[in-house]
Amino acid sequence: MHQESTQPVQPVQPHAAPKPQRLPPGAEHPSLLAAMFRPGTPMLWVPSSYFAMALTYMMLTSVTSIMFKNLGMDNGKAAEYASYLILAYTIKPLFAPFVEMYRTKKFFVLCTQVIVGVGFAGVALAMSLPNYMVVMVFLFGLLSLVGATQDIASDGVYVTSLDSRAQSLFCGIQSLSWNVGPIVASGGMVYLSGWLHTHYFGHPAGEFGPQWIESWRVIFFIVAAIIIVSAIWHARVMPDGAKAENAPKSVGEAGFILWDSFVTFFQKRDVWLMVGFAFLFRLSIGLLEKIGPFFMVDPVAKGGLGLSNEMLGLVYGTYGLIAVLVGSLLGGIFVSRRGLPATLFILCCAVNIPNVTFLLMSMYQPESLWVISAGVAIEKFFYGFGSVGFMIYLMQQLAPGKYSTTHYAFGTGLMGLCMMVTGVVSGHLQQALGYVHYFWLVMAATIPSFLVTWFAPFHHKD
């Protein structure tokens, strides 16, 4: 699935920057590897904390949709329920100031990871209940709030425990570690669910229904164990994280800071054009996000490609996500050489036009796994290539000002809101239109993206 949060949203940092700790003594050595792997280095906790964040996020917002589909839920409800779980991650800037008020950031990281681990184990156990679906959806909703808090606290430890040089040194590790999460969740876990279903429990691959409970129960126990082990590890190696100098000391002060950040956000020049850009740039991707995997696993008779979960995990969750990573790397190089104003519309084309591969696959329903893999990889590669422009635009044009980190979070929150809204309606639209007509709708939805990109304002130096 598309990754919606490649660059993790940082916690609110009002007014003044915190005074972070420096790298461990001697880590200023010019050798990059020596600094990264010295005893006490952030290399002990940065990769594991961002992997845990990503694994939680992807299991809740993407993998759940495949599980709902496997358990017999129709496309409309499966996409809708999974999309609602994005809401907590969308609104997390609203409660970030309150996390800053109490205890240490490490305390919140450990608490949230333990709760997430226990919660996923609870989901696995709940599958034995007669009304398991209701209980699961309720637990997923709670876990999304806890997972969003984990993101805030983990970002806070990173920002306040490392000085600027160390943050620059480890930013690539941070991003890479986050991106491993989707590969493990959408690739490895989905693949393993299919393997268990057919090879261990002996069920037919192409049938959906309660017989999938056995496989998914194992998956959630595995994920629960990974998160709990992460919490135990972080209890030993993660620093406490410093408190921001101007952290709110009361609920009233936190509310004032949040309100002031809203007021100053909407005082920005041409703010509504930038809001439109943040919300609409990925409109077509939001419509494709949940339906793409459904199209892969639905039977050929229903207009799908009839892949098993194993093949879905390989094609969509592994090859596709690797293509996203490569595309993102090359997209960053492209923007760095030519500048964002000269490349933003090209990047928008890269995000939107390759969606036509799904339209073509729905029309011809290829049987060759190579053709299907190539179609997915092309779309994902250009998605990664073009999405770099979106994140850079938010950083350079929308975020600058008194509350730059918070305003950047508002921008990514608007993008998340778009993904949630489109995800909620996508399954119902697909059921009404069928796959071919639905993918025509996806292509029509690229038009607003082109318009907001063409008129996107540039008021700050590139």
TrEMBL record:
InterPro entries: AmpG_permease/AT-1, MFS, MFS_trans_sf. GO terms for cellular component: membrane. Residues 1-23 are annotated as: Disordered. Residues 7-20 have a biased composition (Low complexity). It is found in: Membrane. It holds the Pfam family MFS_1. Keywords: Membrane, Transmembrane, Transmembrane helix, Transport. It is a multi-pass membrane protein. GO terms for molecular function: transmembrane transporter activity. Its main location: membrane. The chain crosses the membrane at residues 50-68, 107-126, 132-148, 169-196, 216-235, 271-291, 311-335, 342-364, 370-395, 407-429, 435-456. It comes from the Bacteria. This is Muropeptide transporter.
